[in-house]
Amino acid sequence: MNKREDAIIRYVTNEMAQEERQHFEQQMQKDPGLLREVGDFRDTQEILQQWQEPEFEVPSFADLEAEAPKKGSVIQLSAVRFPKWMSYAAAVLFLLGFAWLSDLQIAQKDNSLVLSFGPAEKEASYNTDQVAQIVDQAIARYATQTQEQDSKEAELNQQFANLEKRVTARLAALYQKDLKEIQQHLTDHERKQLLATEELARGLQFEQRVLLQEAIIAVLDKIEQQRLEDRIGLENAFEQITTLLTEIQSGGTTVVDGVTDLGVKHY
Amino acid sequence: MSKEALSEQLIRQIRAGKRSAMDELMKLWYQPIVRYAWRFTGDRHAAEEIGQNTFLKVFRKLNQLKDISRFHIWLYRIADNQCKDYLRRNKKYESLDQEQINGQPSTRRNAQHELEQQEQTKWIKKALQKLPDDQRIIIVMKEYQGLKFREIADILEISENTVKSRMYAGLKALKKSLIRHPHKKELYYE
Q1: How far is residue A19 from each of residues A2, A22, A23, A28, A177, measured CA to CA in Å?
Q2: A45: which chain B residues are within 8 Å (Cβ-Cβ)?
Q3: Cβ pair B124:A50 closer than 8 A
Q4: What is the pLDDT of residue A95?
C-alpha cells in the first residue's frame, strides 16, 4: 500500500488527525483523480450502511448456562484460584475463631499444653516436647515438599528449555524449507543472484543487513501470497520489497540489485 | 463511562463472584458480537449460535484474561475464531431466505418499497460475499462495528498496515460491484 492509498483509507474511515485531514482536503482540490477516488469510496461506504442490522434477543446468563452442558462446556464462576497455603491459613483462622466462639481453652501446665473443651473431663494434655516434635516433623515435611516443588520446577524449566530448542530447530528447518521453496520459484539467474546477495550481505553494515533480512522475509511473504492467490498481498509484498531495497541502496551498496530482480521480474 | 471501562468494572464483579454482572456484560456486548457474526456468516441462526458459543468461552476463560482493559479485543478474537470455525464446518454464505437477509420479519406497509429494500440488501450482501474472507472481515469490523485499525490489527494479530491495505482492497472491489449496479441510482435518489 502506497502513501496515497494509506491516506485515502485513513481519510474515508475518519482515522486522520485534524491537521493532516485539512492538508489532505487541500490536496483533493488540486487533484481531481484523488477527489474522484475518495468520492467513490464514500459512495461505497454509504451504500454499505443501507444494509440494516437486525435486533437479536440477548439471552440471560442462566440461558447460556443451561446450554453449556449440551455444548460440552462448563462455566465456573469462581475466577480466582487461591494458593495452597491460604487454605492452611484459613484452617488455622477457623480453629482460632472456633476457639474464640466456643469454650475451647489452651493453657500450658508444667511441660504440657492443655486443651480443654466443654466439661473438664474432656480435657486432653500434650507434652510440649511432643508438640515441638510434631511441629518439627511438619516443618520437615513442608521443607521436603518445597524441595520437591523446586526440583519439579527445575525439571519443568529444563523441559521447557528442551522444547524451546526443538521449536527453534524446527523453525530453522522450516526456514530452510522456505528457502528451498523460494529457489523452486526462481530462475537459475535469480537463484545465483540470491546466493550472491547472501554472500555479499556479510560485508554490509548492521542496519543494511537488517533491512536485507526484511527484504528476504518480504520475498518469502510474496511466495506465500502467491500460494494464497492473494493479489493484493502480492502487490503489498512487491511494494515492501522495493521500499526496503531502496533504503538499503541509499546506504551505498549494490548488493541488493539481485533481490530487486527477484522482487519484480518474477511476477 | 465508556463501554470498555464499564466492561472492566463488570469483569471485576464477575471475578468477585457476582453472577448478575455476567448478564450485564452480555447486555453490553451480545448484540455487537452476534451482528458481527451475522454480517460475516450471512446466517441469523449461525450468528446466534456463534454468539452463544463466544460467550460460553468468554465466561469459561475469563479468569485467564490478564489485561482486562483489552477485553473487547479478546472478545472479538474469540468471536472471529468462532466465525472462522463455522465457515470451515459449513459452506459459507448459503442461500438465505428473506427473513435472514433483512434480519427480521417484514413489518412495512409499502410492499413495493420493501421489495426494493430487499433487492438492495441482497445486492450489498452479494457484493460482500464476493470478497475474500480476510477483506470481508475487516470491512465488517470497520464499517459495521466501528473498530479502529489498531483494534482490528490486535484482534486479527496482523499489522495495522495489512489491515489498511485489505480495507483499501476490499472497498475498491466493493466499489466496482456496488457502484456499477443498476440499483445504484435508486439507492441514491429514492
Answers
A1: 20, 5, 6, 14, 48
A2: 143, 171
A3: yes
A4: 54
Mean pLDDT of chain A: 65
Contact check, Cβ <8 Å, B149/A56: no
What CATH code would you report for B110-189? 1.10.10.10
Check B104 against A54: CB less than 8 A apart: yes
Q: For chain A, which residues make up each domain, given as ranges? A: 3-48, 84-172, 186-265
CATH class of B3-89: mainly alpha
Query: Is A75 at the interface with chain B, CB within 8 A?
Result: yes
pLDDT tens-digit readout, B90-121: 754 444 444 444 444 444 455 666 666 677 77
Domain ranges of chain B: 3-89, 110-189
Q: How far is A157 from chain B (nearest CA, A)?
A: 22
Contacts 24+ apart (CB under 8 A), B157-166: B157/B77, B161/A1, B161/A6, B161/A236, B162/A236, B163/B138, B164/A1, B164/A5, B164/A6, B164/A9, B164/A10, B165/A1, B165/A5, B165/A232, B165/A236, B166/A232, B166/B134, B166/B135, B166/B138
Model pLDDT for residues A227-240, shown as the tens digit of each residue: 555 556 556 656 66
The C-alpha of A100 sits at a distance from chain B's nearest C-alpha, in angstroms, of 29
A146 and chain B in contact, CB less than 8 A: no
Q: Which one of B10, B56, B118 would you mutate to disrupt binding with A, by most A Cβ within 10 Å of its Cβ?
A: B56
Which chain A residue has the Cα nearest residue B175?
A44
Identify which has the larger pLDDT, B140 or A180: B140
Q: Is B171's pLDDT higher than 90?
A: yes
Grid coordinates in use for A212? 536485507
Residue B122 neighbours by CB under 8 Å, 6+ apart: B101
